[in-house]
Amino acid sequence: MPKLLLATRNSAKVREYSLLFQGVPFQLTTLADEGISMEVSEIGHTLEENAKLKATAYATGNRFLVVADDSGLEVDALGGEPGSLSARYAGKEATDKEKIALLLSRLEGLPWERRSARFRCVIAIALDAKIVGLCEGECGGIITFEPRGDQGFGYDPIFYLPELGKTMAEFPMEEKNRVSHRGKAAQKALQVLQHMWQELS
């Protein structure tokens, strides 16, 4: 069975994609599984650019499909920040708690109705260093005044979904995958991968 490389070193993302891509007609593998130590700098100015950069870089010289994503939190009151800089918002080595603390400090004093935000995820699929699929997912919500829940990672504990009455970190993984930006992008990516499998078969 051909391999599908998940181009991330984030163990939480690997767990999510392992569930999201259940039933995909490829053998899932990771950078760690393949002994790939190369790092790809996210120097793009958008989520799309960063996803493409990672996907094509890891697909170069490899004989398997590569899935790479970039995701970010866009806060309206901050002009769309942190956006593509979400993972490095408080510095490259900052913990999730430190990133959350910085974001909340920049929203200090803002009322609930001015704390609207969205999570966006772009998944790029590459083969032989060429992009063969680009899929996007989005999820709207509100930034809370303090963290709630311990099921997610990143900014999940402060991202509240009003229609469901929970932060992203208060959902079990399976439920989160049905409503999250990454889950929506992954559903589109699954369709692309299944179509590719049919062409390769």
Write up this protein.
By secondary structure, the chain is α/β, with parallel strands linked by helices. It contains 6 helices and 7 strands, in the order βαβααβαββββαα. A hairpin with a 4-residue loop joins β6 and β7. The radius of gyration is 17 Å and the shape is globular. The mean pLDDT is 93.
SSE arrangement:
Elements: E1 3-6, H1 11-20, E2 27-30, H2 31-34, H3 47-59, E3 65-75, H4 96-106, E4 116-127, E5 130-143, E6 159-161, E7 166-167, H5 173-179, H6 181-200
Parallel strand pairs: 1-2, 1-3
Antiparallel strand pairs: 3-4, 4-5, 5-6, 6-7
Helix pairs in contact: 5-6
Percent helix, as a range, is 25-40%
CATH architecture name: Alpha-Beta Complex
CATH topology: Maf protein
User: How is the largest sheet built, in terms of strand order?
Assistant: 2-1-3-4-5-6-7
- Which series of helices and strands comes N to C? EHEHHEHEEEEHH
Count of spatially separate domains = 1
Largest sheet: 7 strands, mixed
Mean pLDDT: 93
User: What's the gyration radius in Å?
Assistant: 17 Å
Unreliable parts: none
User: Class, according to the CATH hierarchy?
Assistant: Alpha Beta
